[in-house]
Amino acid sequence: PAATPREGFPIEIQALWYNALIFMAQIDGPIRRPTWKDRADQVQAAVSDLFFLKESGYLSDCRHAARGISAKNAIPDDAFRPNQLLAVTLGLVSDPVIQRAVVRNCASLIVPGGIRSLADRPVQRPLPVYRDGQLLNDPSHPYFGVYSGDEDTRRKPAYHNGTVWTWLFPSFCEAWAIAFGGAARDTARAFMGSSAMLANTGSAGQLQEIMDGDFPHRQKGCDAQAWAVSEWLRVWRRLSSSS
Asked: Rounded to 5 degrees, what are φ and ψ at 19?
């Protein structure tokens, strides 16, 4: 089942789109009118205006809309997910106030070596998950704290609704350093050090795919996740570099 509704304008797609436009500006130059940079600036301004939930202090996970509906007329949700970290690490959000608000809030999703895919809190916009017409969750409180049971009716809904991911955890550490400046690198590296517990258990020297969102955060899924390891190494090298 579609456990995380993405129809409309998901925040991570806006971040990836912005990053693609910046890349095009670098390789294609300022020949076109409007330029790729002009388009990137337009995306950045729109996200700042439409996605930041000022009272909550974080970015809307998705502005929901059917095909043909603009982002301005889409309906924002308040589901608190770590996907928004990509808006910081890929440069989409450059306002230091918003960056710091996002990172501070995302700290509440952290467990040692991982980050929950959804906060354990009620949502104002219901997020129902159906399979074959059967409602699988509580739409007003869609958090699943344990990844277990039948694959289609329990594990799949849990995967994006509370299960801890290891691959996105380094992005939190990277975003922390971006938001709080060079002096915060030591703190970010200290956060990353919590992954040692995972690397020293299970498949030695590797990182597990997922963990339960609820304590004691049992390791589950693939026991050697390539993109979790590669992301950890990428961010560690960046935080350890002199530039």
From this structure: -60, -40
Reduced to 3 states (helix: H, G, I; strand: E, B; else coil), residue 38 is helix
End-to-end Cα, the chain, rounded Å = 44
Phi, psi of 27 (to 5 degrees): -100, -20
Spatial contact of 208 and 142, defined as CB atoms under 8 Å apart: no
pLDDT in tens, 181-222: 988 999 999 999 999 999 998 888 899 999 999 999 999 999
Structure tokens at 215: 């304590």
Residues 6+ apart with CB under 8 A from 211: 111, 113, 114, 147, 163, 164, 166, 217, 218, 219, 220
Question: Which pLDDT tens digit goes with each residue over 163-176?
Answer: 999 999 999 999 99
